[in-house]
Amino acid sequence: MTAAGVVEVIGVPGLPEVRPGDDVGELIAAHARLQDEDIVVVAQKIVSKAEGRIRSLKVVEPGESALRYAERLQADPRVIQVILDETVRVVRDERVLIVETRQGYVCANAGVDHSNVPGADSVTLLPEDSDASASALRRRLEELTGRRLGLIVADTFGRAWRMGITNVALGVAGLPALVDYRGRPDDFGQELTATLVAVADEVACAAELVMGKTDRLPVAVVRGYRPPAPPGSGRDLIRPPELDLFR
Length: 247
Known about the structure:
The chain is an alpha+beta fold. The protein has helices at residues 24-31, 44-50, 64-73, 77-85, 130-145, 199-211, and strands at residues 8-11, 39-43, 54-56, 87-92, 98-101, 106-108, 122-124, 150-157, 166-173, 179-180, 196-197, 219-223.
């Protein structure tokens, strides 16, 4: 639900390069004018940097599995080793490694990423617990601003059925991840049986329109959206294995 059907998406410019140990909440509070019920969407990359989730490839020793995958995929074996270190199961290994991460995500390369990382020999990893990261950052922002907020830690993932990448919510705090319309009547009185809307992903996607990939806008504010459900978590969005047709 929205106020008068209007939702605003506002980029937050001016944040400096984030380094391990930085107070991301303080940086956002210094650059954003927040209001009650705003949803703050934060790029996973700066959360990972602040939490020290960075690995130097200079100290990575590839094992036999990494060397085999690297030869097949024409990839840096050190990066492959980092991916495998973050992985509990390799789902597919054609063209790219699709894996299940220790956090439960099924995604390309376990979220290990070279982009927007200073230095050619460093990669970032996903947060250890994105929901915990979102909750801690939300508490810090609310403490600094006195506002009631929702917070999403977001990253871009590919999709099994469609081309292109989109933002998705990894960590969620202060808003629902899903809104379940099953059992409710539609506009013509028919009972909905399969309508489970990933609203946190939709908010993350809206934010990405102003965040971009090369504009140095790792934070956006979504204003005016009031999710019609109680708060949830990012884990609500992870499809159980028995319902996943692609595992």
